[in-house]
Amino acid sequence: MSDILIVNLKRHGDILQMSHLINSIHENNPSSNISVLVFDEFKKSASIINHVKKVYTIPRKKIISYHKNDIYSDAWGLNKLTESLSSLEKTTWDRVVNYSNDRSSSYICSYIDFQQGHGEIAGTSFNLENNTQNYNDWQIIYNNTTDLISNSAFNINDLTHLMTDTAPVTAEDKLKTNANHNKTAFKNFNQIRKINQNKTNDVQIVGVQLKSSMASKDIPEEVLVNTIKKLHEDSRTIPILLHSPAEDEKEYTERINAEFGKKLITVESDIIALTSVLINIDVVITPDTLTKHMADNTDTPCIEVSLGPAPLFLQSSINQRSLVITLNPDTRNYESKEALSPIHFDSLNETLNNTIEHFLNPSIELDIPGPWAVFKPVKDRIGTTLMPIAGSINDQSEYTRFFTRGIVSQMLTGISFDITAFNDLDNPNLNQWVEDQKQSFTNISRTLLNTIRALHQMKTDQVNTNTFVECLDILFDHSKEETLARIPLLIFKSRLESLSSINKDQGVKEVNELLFTLKNDIQLIINELNKVGMDEEIAELQRTATGETNV
Amino acid sequence: MYSNFTINIKETRSGDRIPVINDIHLHSAYKPVSEAENFADLKRETLEANSNVLIFGLGFGYHLRAIENILKENHKSYRIIVIEPVKAIIDAFYENGFSIDDDHIQVYNFETIEEYYLTEDLVEFMVSKPAVISHPSSFKLCQDFYTSFMKHNASTNISDVEALIKSEPLKKYFENIEQGELPQLLRELSQTNRIESAEEFLLMSYKEIVTTNSTGELNE
Prior knowledge:
The complex is a heterodimer of chains A (about 550) and B (about 220).
Chain A: E1 3-7, H1 12-28, E2 33-39, H2 43-47, E3 54-58, H3 60-68, H4 74-86, E4 95-98, H5 103-116, E5 120-122, E6 125-126, E7 132-133, H6 137-143, H7 156-163, H8 179-195, E8 204-209, H9 221-233, E9 237-243, H10 247-258, E10 265-268, H11 271-279, E11 283-286, H12 290-297, E12 302-306, H13 312-315, E13 323-327, H14 345-360, E14 372-379, E15 384-391, H15 395-413, H16 420-423, H17 429-460, H18 464-478, H19 486-497, H20 504-531, H21 536-546
Parallel strand pairs in A: 1-2, 1-4, 2-3, 4-5, 8-9, 8-11, 9-10, 11-12, 12-13
Antiparallel strand pairs in A: 6-7, 13-14, 14-15
Helix pairs in contact in A: 1-12, 3-4, 6-7, 8-11, 9-14, 17-18, 17-20, 19-20
Chain B: E1 7-11, E2 17-21, E3 24-25, H1 32-42, H2 44-49, E4 52-56, H3 62-74, E5 79-83, H4 87-95, E6 105-108, H5 113-117, H6 120-127, E7 131-134, H7 136-141, H8 143-150, H9 158-164, H10 168-176, H11 182-191, H12 198-211
Parallel strand pairs in B: 4-5, 4-7, 5-6
Antiparallel strand pairs in B: 1-2, 2-3
Helix pairs in contact in B: 1-3, 9-10
């Protein structure tokens, strides 16, 4: 029986998303005791996750209150922190998982590791030289997600499984539910279906999550009202308005409902009750909210409207029946703190209505006006990725995203990906993309060779240290370009930063090894690029010749 | 601090007793109960929204009782802490037959402002953001004290911080290092390339928690 502690110092949505990993750990090893450490204000979310033995908390707001106000000594905040961590010390942890991988959680994991000394930390931690150490290379990709937000090839759920070496397992009952809430919700929603005589027999109850935590992520009120009107008038659907007990959400819900003569069904639920609600409805329309993460846990499909800073490719719905609406990912501004501009309202209206129609009747082709796009979560060998199904996208960015996913998976897991999927795309832009990538690799390879040369010359000539550093800078600059080499370069950079060589000779040797690993990674990518457009039989022959395995 | 005050007790026309200090009547000389009820009523909205209240000034507690009555009407549980710097007032309060409900009300009195901020119960209460109500006459009597109380600057000196630390290993860690200021220590630790103890990881996690998003809000 192993004791596992998962440290997640993020917010409600991230904590609910953690349930997938907890479920996988439990299914892979049912005898493991899984506990979590979260900030106090998010305890409710952690408490409803199944298979969690104990929820430990840190009173973050109190600690910050003590620190921010000059009238209080920092000692009080330190006491609060040490008290909360002392409860963890009573258990000898076999494994500590740093789920959030921010600096706070990394130092806490390092603190536990230093004290206990023999467990394993999956995730980022600090070593005794105060350098970050990564459990594996997937960790490095996870730690760079902020840079990769606009076209990440991997979502957070997949990365957390990969960086903890946990095989993903899908199962039901990831969240605890309240039996009374379940009974009430089941009864009430069945009643709603029955009494709506003007609706079809297989009427769908559509939950509409009205608010998110940020105006920049909210579906505009005008669009919401139009959408709800259509759902209300459609014989196939019954809209219900979802809101939390917060006063501002209640008022907003009343205002929206007033547009419909207060005839709409509204459901107020806290985190615990919301699970029962979601289990009993057919689909939920939502911005990026904890409702979406909860729906993923209850297997309720979402029509997600991803706006503002919502991390589309990192944390969208992973339910294969969901649909995700976004502005063209290439032109979208993830740093925007402003609500969606009114110039987009009409097109979002049309997009949302057409997407709902497609959800209700998948045989209807999805027609999406620019600048919007619709994606669909799709399972593959690694986990879940978003596939564009309609609308405005940049083909080249999508090729980069998919190819990155395949090639990095191949680099880090040895499982080759189905490159013939690229051959199925009859878009003429594919060849241009291949040529552009090859050109970028020509530049990168040149820089890489210069760097290796400069390193060798550095052994004998001190002056060449500057040349070596300049070459490294150029190489690091390449890691900011959106090419297939980005992730191998990020991995190289991170490994370089983690080196703690004891002398110059050892340092040069270690850097040399890293550079040659990078060179091999880049060669792997170039080999795969060369296969794009190649006949599948020939591609298979090449794989056999190079010893690649295909699972 | 206010040990030189002399208290005179006056009986009002309504038969109530009030303290008079340095010619300042701490309550109405005519109807202290009505005055207190009116005063509390002005604070009704605040009292309905907050079950924890910090009161500056005890006097003979007329305002305290009126405030407590409103809290009882509106909250299942409530707590009042009174800060009263003049010990003689507290002594006179009890000597004149007044009492408080210990389950819900505490009165704190110390010689120095520093001592208030060394009292864990009081500090915990204050950081919970109670409603703060000044009894006007008491505030006028000890204005310097109350002003200084709210403008207190806690020491960041490591030895002063260490005195309040409960964790033995952390206490020992602070004892072993050279004197200095905590903010400086935290800055140095974040730049160090040599970690010596678990406590240094703990201090760095503390630094990250308090400096990540200084508003205390985690954005969704």
